[in-house]
């Protein structure tokens, strides 16, 4: 029972983590809460669904296609809606992000209708495995495996590559990075591309997990993932992973012990409690007052 | 009794001891300057006095009351006004509003006063604060710019506005953090007179400053800080000829 | 007589006007904590919700007079906000924002599970008898809220809030008790949100916890950012436009929200400080009336 719920929680949590990474990376670099990020996740799910059901692509290819599509979309959104506002107040950029979010979800509703769609059953024929006394579906293993792989890839890019180094420098100090000859615009575009790709993968995985893709799935998933990013310490990549997993596990256990009707409040209750004890999140850096 | 007394004040940031066991007294009515090389811990001492940081060890007392570790707003309210090394004005507000904010502790009406603005008592207080603000502005010769935005003032004017804002607290002790930085010689001369006038009006002045000519011309007494430790304390001419001070500024073997 | 006047207005237009009025009350409320004090709240709909349900229950269970109900809804909401605000307003910037968002979601879910709020079914709110017709009451509250906001902005209290917004360290070095002012402005802000919610519930006749979700909070925030943060005319203007916009965009029916979203982006990109941002109305008016120049005499006395 415990093992079973733990696996359920980790599967759900890794999807939160995938989305949370996009929030945290963008925030780390331009301190913007990218409220359209949840919508990118939603679009990612729809694109994956289209590729599977219309083009009959294999689920992995569909996921790759959806990631590529959302990468471009993320870059375009940044270019149109955020770049012109980079020198303005952060609230203006936030409202712009909210505008993008409303635009995308209403667009999705017009195109795909208000009803939730499911993946065709042959997209990923899940089987149940019995490990001890736990029933674990191969789908959950797929989700955990793909998420882990993507996060490792991200960690590699950020820590070992040249562009990753530029990202870290920009997030440390935007202006100095620009003075050192780093092409900050490119770094920002790249960050949006990476974050959007992860969200798209998360979208396809969540679509499979709940067998439901709908125009409004981005809102709550986005909010919870954002909560996960803040819980871990916004701007911190390991923090986003940790925060996502924690919230996913907590939510599953909360439901399991009988608080299912409070499901959507669990993540936020944990977030608020943690922030009261650690005001900058679990792995967030302490802010020293500069005078 | 000294107006302000630092008793073995110490603060550590992680492993770094920024201020180390500093004993210092500021006497009522004097102008005391704190000098020392960059990074000696001068601004940190100001931040300790004003409560931005709490001392790791030691005690700071003002008018005989222990103020170490009290929050900044309490310390300001007890009569310590300050300026900042990197100017921290409310730059999008008018010059007058900046000083009115400085006069905050001189008023009492809060939310109820805002909603009952028309009551004679509230209007009297607003009038009083306004007069105080204009008075402070005129002391630094900025009254004619009252309705300009603070960000539209020149650098030297902004430094003076910070002084006016601190004066609006009607402080017993005024802390000036590099008041002459970025000013031309003429502006510095004007500032010198202004600070002297402020002292004549009964305000004790404690300042951090790099410009030696300015410090020598203004201060009654000078304390020298190096690597967080006080290495000298005395009248300007004493400090000027103190070997330890020369060494701190010019390095070993300079004299 | 007033009833006749109100009845003579086209009911559809009247409905839009009342919506605008309630929007203005909510926007002015949010403007106090976010525009003046600079603390981003992404959960103000929760306070609207608390006010709406408090008002509805006072009417249904206790049958209190409407004016008292309005006042109590605002006050109770303010107390709730102060209790919530006291621990969380220590948090800085975006951490505070997400915390308010989190609280709003929690309030929503809790209301969806309580018997007294009738769970997910929501409450039908009867309109209590009152001397004045509803639209006139809304109008009066709007006028009072505008006056109160303008008073606050030009007072010792308001100056302290703006000082906190612009530079917390400088503000506390001027003797301003930051924590206390933040909680107070949060409570005042919630007071207006609570009253707005109470009016909303009684006007609509039906409330449901789901009505007060994240998107409602965002609606309010858009109003004040669109109008120009920290500006009372801006909040009024932004609230008017955004409350009326869905109606004017109605002819596009299904494209409505699509256009609304694009419009938000468009407006921000071209007017990042809001439509009325950077315009100081008090100054303009005072200068027109010749009130400010008399300070010049003050200045000469000083010199």
Automatic annotation (TrEMBL), chain A:
<keyword id="KW-1003">Cell membrane</keyword>
<feature type="transmembrane region" description="Helical">
    <location>
        <begin position="59"/>
        <end position="81"/>
    </location>
</feature>
<keyword id="KW-0472">Membrane</keyword>
<dbReference type="Pfam" id="PF02653">
    <property type="entry name" value="BPD_transp_2"/>
</dbReference>
<feature type="transmembrane region" description="Helical">
    <location>
        <begin position="265"/>
        <end position="284"/>
    </location>
</feature>
<feature type="transmembrane region" description="Helical">
    <location>
        <begin position="179"/>
        <end position="209"/>
    </location>
</feature>
<keyword id="KW-0997">Cell inner membrane</keyword>
<comment type="similarity">
    <text>Belongs to the binding-protein-dependent transport system permease family. LivHM subfamily.</text>
</comment>
<keyword id="KW-0029">Amino-acid transport</keyword>
<feature type="transmembrane region" description="Helical">
    <location>
        <begin position="136"/>
        <end position="158"/>
    </location>
</feature>
<feature type="transmembrane region" description="Helical">
    <location>
        <begin position="93"/>
        <end position="116"/>
    </location>
</feature>
<feature type="transmembrane region" description="Helical">
    <location>
        <begin position="6"/>
        <end position="26"/>
    </location>
</feature>
<keyword id="KW-0813">Transport</keyword>
<protein>
    <submittedName>
        <fullName>Branched-chain amino acid ABC transporter permease</fullName>
    </submittedName>
</protein>
<keyword id="KW-1133">Transmembrane helix</keyword>
UniProtKB/TrEMBL annotation, chain B:
<dbReference type="InterPro" id="IPR032823">
    <property type="entry name" value="BCA_ABC_TP_C"/>
</dbReference>
<dbReference type="InterPro" id="IPR003439">
    <property type="entry name" value="ABC_transporter-like_ATP-bd"/>
</dbReference>
<dbReference type="GO" id="GO:0005524">
    <property type="term" value="F:ATP binding"/>
</dbReference>
<keyword id="KW-0067">ATP-binding</keyword>
<protein>
    <submittedName>
        <fullName>ABC transporter ATP-binding protein</fullName>
    </submittedName>
</protein>
<dbReference type="InterPro" id="IPR017871">
    <property type="entry name" value="ABC_transporter-like_CS"/>
</dbReference>
<dbReference type="InterPro" id="IPR051120">
    <property type="entry name" value="ABC_AA/LPS_Transport"/>
</dbReference>
<dbReference type="InterPro" id="IPR027417">
    <property type="entry name" value="P-loop_NTPase"/>
</dbReference>
<feature type="domain" description="ABC transporter">
    <location>
        <begin position="4"/>
        <end position="252"/>
    </location>
</feature>
<dbReference type="Pfam" id="PF00005">
    <property type="entry name" value="ABC_tran"/>
</dbReference>
<keyword id="KW-0547">Nucleotide-binding</keyword>
<keyword id="KW-0813">Transport</keyword>
<dbReference type="InterPro" id="IPR003593">
    <property type="entry name" value="AAA+_ATPase"/>
</dbReference>
<dbReference type="Pfam" id="PF12399">
    <property type="entry name" value="BCA_ABC_TP_C"/>
</dbReference>
From TrEMBL, chain C:
<keyword id="KW-0812">Transmembrane</keyword>
<keyword id="KW-0472">Membrane</keyword>
<dbReference type="InterPro" id="IPR001851">
    <property type="entry name" value="ABC_transp_permease"/>
</dbReference>
<feature type="transmembrane region" description="Helical">
    <location>
        <begin position="66"/>
        <end position="88"/>
    </location>
</feature>
<dbReference type="InterPro" id="IPR043428">
    <property type="entry name" value="LivM-like"/>
</dbReference>
<keyword id="KW-1003">Cell membrane</keyword>
<feature type="transmembrane region" description="Helical">
    <location>
        <begin position="223"/>
        <end position="245"/>
    </location>
</feature>
<feature type="transmembrane region" description="Helical">
    <location>
        <begin position="257"/>
        <end position="279"/>
    </location>
</feature>
<protein>
    <submittedName>
        <fullName>Branched-chain amino acid ABC transporter permease</fullName>
    </submittedName>
</protein>
<feature type="transmembrane region" description="Helical">
    <location>
        <begin position="12"/>
        <end position="33"/>
    </location>
</feature>
<feature type="transmembrane region" description="Helical">
    <location>
        <begin position="183"/>
        <end position="203"/>
    </location>
</feature>
<feature type="transmembrane region" description="Helical">
    <location>
        <begin position="95"/>
        <end position="114"/>
    </location>
</feature>
<feature type="transmembrane region" description="Helical">
    <location>
        <begin position="134"/>
        <end position="152"/>
    </location>
</feature>
<feature type="transmembrane region" description="Helical">
    <location>
        <begin position="40"/>
        <end position="60"/>
    </location>
</feature>
<keyword id="KW-1133">Transmembrane helix</keyword>
């Amino acid at each position: 029972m415990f093992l079973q719920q733990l696996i359920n929680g980790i599967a759900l949590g890794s999807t939160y983590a995938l989305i949370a990474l996009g929030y945290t990376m963008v925030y780390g670099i331009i301190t913007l809460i990218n409220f359209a990020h949840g919508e990118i996740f939603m679009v990612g799910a729809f694109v994956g669904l289209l590729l599977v059901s219309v083009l009959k692509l294999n689920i992995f290819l569909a996921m790759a296609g959806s990631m590529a599509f959302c990468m471009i979309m993320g870059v375009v959104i940044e270019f149109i809606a955020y770049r012109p506002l980079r020198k303005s107040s952060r609230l203006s950029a936030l409202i712009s992000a909210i505008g993008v979010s409303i635009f995308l979800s209403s667009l999705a509703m017009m195109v795909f209708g208000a009803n939730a769609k499911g993946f065709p059953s042959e997209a990923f024929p899940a089987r149940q495995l019995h490990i001890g006394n736990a029933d674990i579906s191969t789908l959950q293993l797929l989700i955990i495996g793909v998420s882990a792989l993507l996060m490792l890839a991200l960690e590699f890019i950020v820590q070992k590559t040249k562009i990753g180094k530029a990202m870290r420098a920009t997030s440390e100090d935007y202006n100095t990075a620009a003075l050192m000859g780093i092409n900050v615009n490119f770094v920002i575009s790249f960050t949006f591309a990476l974050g959007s790709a992860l969200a798209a993968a998360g979208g396809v995985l969540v679509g499979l997990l709940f067998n439901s893709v709908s125009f409004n799935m981005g809102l709550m998933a986005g909010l919870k993932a954002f909560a996960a990013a803040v819980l871990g310490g916004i701007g911190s990549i390991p923090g986003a992973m940790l925060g996502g997993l924690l919230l996913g596990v907590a939510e599953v256990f909360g439901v399991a012990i009988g608080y299912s009707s409070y499901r959507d409040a669990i993540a936020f209750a944990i977030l608020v409690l943690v922030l009261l004890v650690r005001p900058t999140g679990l792995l967030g850096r302490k802010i020293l007052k500069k005078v | 009794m000294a107006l302000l007394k630092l008793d073995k004040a110490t603060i550590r940031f992680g492993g770094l001891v920024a201020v180390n066991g500093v004993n210092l007294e500021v006497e009522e009515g004097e102008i005391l300057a704190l000098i020392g090389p960059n990074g000696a811990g001068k601004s940190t001492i100001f931040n300790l006095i004003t409560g931005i940081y709490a001392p790791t060890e030691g005690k700071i007392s003002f008018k005989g009351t222990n103020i170490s570790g009290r929050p900044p707003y309490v310390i300001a309210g007890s009569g310590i006004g300050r300026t900042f090394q990197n100017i921290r004005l409310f730059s999008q507000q008018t010059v007058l509003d900046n000083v009115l904010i400085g006069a905050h502790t001189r008023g009492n009406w809060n939310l109820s006063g805002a909603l009952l603005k028309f009551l004679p008592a509230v209007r009297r207080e607003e009038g009083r604060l306004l007069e105080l603000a204009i008075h402070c502005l005129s002391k630094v010769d900025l009254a004619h710019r009252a309705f300009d935005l603070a960000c539209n003032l020149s650098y030297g004017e902004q430094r003076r506005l910070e002084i006016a804002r601190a004066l609006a607290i009607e402080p017993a002790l005024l802390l000036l953090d590099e008041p002459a930085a970025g000013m031309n010689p003429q502006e510095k001369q004007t500032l010198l007179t202004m600070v002297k006038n402020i002292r004549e009006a009964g305000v004790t002045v404690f300042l951090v400053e790099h410009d030696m000519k300015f410090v020598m011309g203004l201060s009654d007494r000078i304390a020298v800080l190096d690597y967080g430790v006080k290495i000298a304390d005395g009248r300007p001419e004493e400090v000027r000829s103190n070997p330890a001070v020369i060494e701190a500024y010019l390095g070993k073997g300079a004299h | 007589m007033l009833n006749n006047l109100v009845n003579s207005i086209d009911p559809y237009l009247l409905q839009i006007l009342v919506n605008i009025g309630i929007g203005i009350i909510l926007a002015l409320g949010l403007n106090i904590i976010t525009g003046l004090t600079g603390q981003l709240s992404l959960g103000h709909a929760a306070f609207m919700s608390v006010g709406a349900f408090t008002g509805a229950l006072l009417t249904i269970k206790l049958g209190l007079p409407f004016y008292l109900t309005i006042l109590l809804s605002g006050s109770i909401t303010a107390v709730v906000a102060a209790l919530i605000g006291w621990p969380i307003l220590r948090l800085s910037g975006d951490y505070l924002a997400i915390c308010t968002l989190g609280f709003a979601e929690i309030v929503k879910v809790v209301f969806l599970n309580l018997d007294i709020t009738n769970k997910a079914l929501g409450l039908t709110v009867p309109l209590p008898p009152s001397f004045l017709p509803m639209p006139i009451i809304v109008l009066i509250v709007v006028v009072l809220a505008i006056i109160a906001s303008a008073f606050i902005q030009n007072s010792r209290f308001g100056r302290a809030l703006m000082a906190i917004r612009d530079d917390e360290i400088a503000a506390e070095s001027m003797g301003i008790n930051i924590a206390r002012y933040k909680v107070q402005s949060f409570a005042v802000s919630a007071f207006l949100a609570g009253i707005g919610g109470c009016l909303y519930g009684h006007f609509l006749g039906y409330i449901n916890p789901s009505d007060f979700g994240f998107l409602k909070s965002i609606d309010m925030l858009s109003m004040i950012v669109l109008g120009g943060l920290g500006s009372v005319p801006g909040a009024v203007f932004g609230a008017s436009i955004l409350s009326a916009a869905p109606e004017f965009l109605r002819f596009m029916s299904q494209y409505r929200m699509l256009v609304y979203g694009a419009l938000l982006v468009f407006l921000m990109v071209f007017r990042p400080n809001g439509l009325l941002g950077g315009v100081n109305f008090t100054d303009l008016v005072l200068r027109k009336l010749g009130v400010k120049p008399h300070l010049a005499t003050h200045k000469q006395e000083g010199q």
